[in-house]
Specification:
about 90 residues; four-stranded antiparallel β-sheet; 3 helices; 4 strands; GIY-YIG domain-containing protein; GIY-YIG_endonuc
Length: about 90
Amino acid sequence: MPLPITQLDRLPKTSGLYKITNAGGTVIYVGQAKNIHARWNKGHHKLSAILSECGVAASIDWVEMPKWLLNRSENAAIRFYQPKLNLKMPPVV
């Protein structure tokens, strides 16, 4: 279940892939972290861009997964969603 971007303190302290969606459900950013909670609660580098784009209507959803699978999963998700805030396209793996 997606969380509002205003409730980042409720994110899990596990590794995984996350996606940010706007109010319409469009994925605008995809990322990965070894600790999703720490990644967002210590000041994510895209938070200001997300808030500028969507305000507090943005939400975050995630899938927990092992650390060894993060890079491949993130690359696949970016290629699939083509989110506007992911500036670079990942290499094909």
